[in-house]
Specification:
By secondary structure, the protein is of the alpha/beta class. The chain is built from 7 helices and 11 strands. The chain starts with 11 loop residues before the first helix and ends with a strand.
Length: 246
C-alpha cells in the first residue's frame, strides 16, 4: 500500500510553489540568527529539503532527515543540482536518534501533524537528545483552525501541463484524512495515475506546549506563520530552547 509522499515527492515543491519558499526560509534564517543559534543544524521532516538547501546557501551546515525515502531521493537530487553538500538520513521523527549533537533542529511544514498527540512528548524527547545544551528547537504545525475550517471536508485541485493533483479530505475527531490522486504525464502523452493517503492530526497549542515542557524544553514564544499573530494564522510556530542540565 502506498505511503504518504511515495508519489507526491517528485512534485511536492512544484505543487507548493505558491508558498514562497525563499521568504519562508528567510524567516527561519533571520530568526535563528536572533536566537544566537550555532551553524550546525538538522531539518527533521525535511521532505525534499527546500529549507535545508536555503540554510546551506546561507552558510549553515545542514543534515536533512525524513521518513520518506522518495522525498530524500528528491532532496539529494535537488541539492546535487545546486552543488550543495547536505547529508540526508532516513529517520522517523517519533524515534529519531543521533550520535551527533546539533546546535538547532528545525522541523517545519507539518512534520508533527503526521503523528498522534500522544506521541508528541516522546518524539520531542528524542529531538532534545539530539541537541546540544541550550540548543534551539523550532517546529511548526498546521493550526487547528486551518485543519478544521479550511482543509477538512474539502476538495483541492491543481492542474499543470505535466501533472494534475486532486485531494479530498474528511474530518474526524482528532484528525483529517486526505485522499490524494496525482496524474503524471508520460513521454507518450498519456497520464499515469497514482494514489496515496495522508493523515494529519489536530494538535491544540496547549497540548504541544505541555509535551515540549515534559521533554525538557523552555518555550520561548509561539507565533503564527512568518511571525504573524497566531490567533488567525494557518500555522503555529513553537520556538524553544533546550534547558541546561542542573
Amino acid at each position: 500500500m502506498p505511503h504518504a509522499y511515495d508519489y507526491l515527492a517528485e512534485w511536492f515543491e512544484t505543487l507548493n510553489d505558491d508558498c514562497d519558499y525563499p521568504k519562508w526560509s528567510q524567516y527561519f534564517i533571520e530568526g535563528l540568527a536572533r536566537l544566537g543559534a550555532g551553524r550546525k543544524g538538522l531539518e527533521l521532516g525535511c521532505g525534499s529539503g527546500a529549507f535545508s538547501r536555503a540554510l546551506t546557501r546561507a552558510g549553515y551546515s545542514m543534515t536533512g532527515a525524513d521518513i520518506s525515502f522518495p522525498m530524500l531521493t528528491k532532496g539529494e537530487q535537488l541539492a546535487s543540482q545546486e552543488g550543495l553538500r547536505i547529508k540526508f538520513l532516513q529517520a522517523d521523527a517519533r524515534t529519531f536518534r543521533s550520535f551527533e549533537k546539533y546546535d538547532f533542529i528545525l522541523s517545519p511544514n507539518d512534520c508533527y501533524n503526521y503523528m498522534q498527540t500522544s506521541a508528541l512528548s516522546s518524539a520531542f524527547s528524542h529531538a532534545a537528545a539530539a541537541l546540544k545544551e541550550e540548543g534551539i528547537f523550532w517546529l511548526d504545525v498546521s493550526s487547528p483552525r486551518k485543519l478544521k475550517e479550511k482543509v477538512a471536508n474539502n476538495m483541492f485541485a491543481d492542474d499543470r501541463d505535466d501533472v494534475t493533483y486532486l485531494c479530498f479530505s474528511k474530518l474526524y475527531e482528532d484528525r483529517v484524512e486526505l485522499d490524494a490522486t496525482i496524474f503524471v504525464k508520460e513521454k507518450d502523452g498519456r497520464f499515469a495515475r497514482f494514489d496515496e493517503k495522508h493523515t494529519q492530526y489536530i494538535h491544540e497549542e496547549k497540548e504541544i506546549a505541555s509535551a515540549l515542557a515534559k521533554a525538557g524544553f523552555e518555550l520561548l514564544r509561539t507565533e503564527g506563520h512568518l511571525g504573524e499573530e497566531k490567533q488567525n494564522s494557518d500555522r503555529l510556530n513553537f520556538i524553544c530552547r533546550k534547558k541546561a542540565s542542573s
